[in-house]
Structures are given as structure tokens and as C-alpha cells.
Amino acid sequence: MNFASDNTAGIAPEILEAIGRANEGFALGYGNDAWTRGIEARIAEVFGREVAVFLVPTGTAANALAVAHFSPPWGALLCYAESHLAVDECGAPEFFGGGLKLMPLPGEAGKIAPETLTGALALGRGAPHSVTPSVLSLTQATEVGTVYTAAETRTLADIAHARGLAVHMDGARLGNALVRLGLTPAQATWQAGVDVLSFGATKGGAMAAEAIVFFDPARAAGMDSRRKRGGHLVSKHRFAAAQFEAYLHDDLWLRLARRANDAADRLAARLAAVQVHPVWPVEANEVFVALFKGADARLKAAGAMYYPWPTEGLPRNAVVGQDRVLVRLVTSFATTDVEIDRFATLAGSA
Hints:
Elements: H1 13-22, H2 34-47, E1 52-56, H3 59-69, E2 75-80, H4 84-87, H5 92-96, E3 101-105, H6 114-121, E4 132-139, H7 150-162, E5 166-171, H8 174-181, H9 185-188, E6 196-200, E7 210-214, H10 223-229, H11 238-248, H12 252-273, E8 286-292, H13 293-301, E9 307-308, E10 324-330, H14 337-347
Parallel strand pairs: 2-3, 2-4, 4-5, 5-6
Antiparallel strand pairs: 1-7, 6-7, 8-10, 9-10
Helix pairs in contact: 1-11, 2-11, 8-12, 12-14
């Protein structure tokens, strides 16, 4: 019963096989190989336009390098208060951005509201006394498993662009959002106003593969040096490219995401049947519930793995009493019906 994270699952078999195939023979390093050239063209095809692509091994690198690229050291990054950039990157955005300032914004259901963004952009005395808002970052799917519609993304992007900000999307779970929304990659990103995407594959089934995708290649100037200077240009680059090649082939990434979402839906339904209801709508592959402490202890004793989830962003009508603990349950392509049903059975009483 492993619901700690989708990155605790193994590598999808198709991707593992691709790594093995890439291991045959020799190839030039640092991206000067056929796999890398091929995946750059493939990602352009997936998004339906010319793009600039930079592969990196971690989501932290993708996020931090992307936002730093669009902000001077005296700039500010606006993001949701409990986003990865704000609480889970160990200061990497500030480090790679030479001291850029984070401006965490509150929100409901993991999302920034237009009026919140507008209000934040109206603050400050202006240069040189205040930092200059430079980047807006949106997480898709969000940290609480909800998703931005294309219209919501476009509204926020329009507000940001009107003030000269670039728009970054943390797409660690982009595939999960797409299959839920029924959108194409283009519709959810550049057609909705996104300038640069952290395109995640690791949580979706890869070993270690993320891509920074610029939807205007001209704006990527210098990223090759920024990536190298940051220590994230992989020497044996073909193995990162091979993972993405398999991930995107025949829409594997979307099929894996749909499998994870379906598992989350089943888990939410099975928990609801025993009166354990999700705190937020289940729109991707994350389920947040308030377990009785007795059930929490029983599940842990049975070997269940998941994380308690402290938050200041509970829905207005949600109360987690002293007898309960809020937890995050994440499904993956490898989650089984057996572990879902066993978990729900053990979770159903105090």
C-alpha cells in the first residue's frame, strides 16, 4: 500500500527497455547525439510548434533554471504559497536566480485567483526600491491535485503579460492534468499563454528525465550556458533523451497518466464508501483525506506508506479535528486495485 508519491514507483517497462537500447554502442556526450536531436524534434511535434528544449535530470533543476532565466537578481517570482518552488526546492530558485525574491500568493484548491494576482502586482514602491515582478509560476496539476482549466491559465497569463511578466508552468504532472481536462499539450500551455514549461517525466514513469521547454526559441538564448554552469548538463545525455523518446512514443505518457488518474478515482470512491471523503476535488492522481488517528495508526501498522500534509489552504468548509490527521495519497501507473481496496478497508473506521 504505497501512496507516498508517484516517484516511489519504478520505471515504466517501456522506458526501462529504451534505456537498455540506448546503452548499445557509443555516442557523443552532452547532447551531441541522435537521441537528443530526435527528442527535440519530437517535443516540438507534441506541442505543435517550434520550441527550444533543454533536458535536465531533476524537476528542481527544471523549475529553478527556467524561472531564473526570466528574472534578474532584483526580480520577483510570484507563485502559489505551497508550490514546490516556494516550499520544496531548498532555495534553488533564489540560488540560481542570483537572489531573486519569491512572492508566495495564497489561494484556494491550490490555485491562484486572478484578483489575488492583480492585487499582488499592485504592491511595492517600484524600482529601485522594490523588487520587480518578473515571473508568474503556475503548477499543473496543482500541489493539491486540482487542475487549471485552459481559460483559468489564460486569464492569469494575460494579467501577467500585461505587466511584463513571463509565465512559467511547473508541469511535473502535466500528463495527469491533460487527460483529466481532455486538452492537447498545446491548448494547456502556449495557447493559454505559457512562455516556458518544466515538462516532467520522472513522476510519470521515467527514471530521471525533465525538460525545460521554451515556446519562443529566441527567448532561450543563453540557457545552454546557464544549464551547464548550474551543473545540470548530463554527460551521457542520450539516456535522458531515450527516456523521453519512450515516454512520448505512441502517447505512453498519457496512457500512464490516465492509469494513475483512474487509480486515484477508484481510491477516492472506495474511501467515500466508508465515509472518508476527499478534502479537495480529485482531478489528477492525488487524494487528500482526513483520517481518524486510529485509522492512521492501523494503516501504518499494516505497512501503508503516505505523508501527513500540513497546510494553511484548507477549503473554507473543511475542518480537520483533533482526532484526525490530513494525509496525501498519491497514485501512480503501478498502483493496483488490491492495494487500493485494502487501504480503504483499513481506513474506514476510527
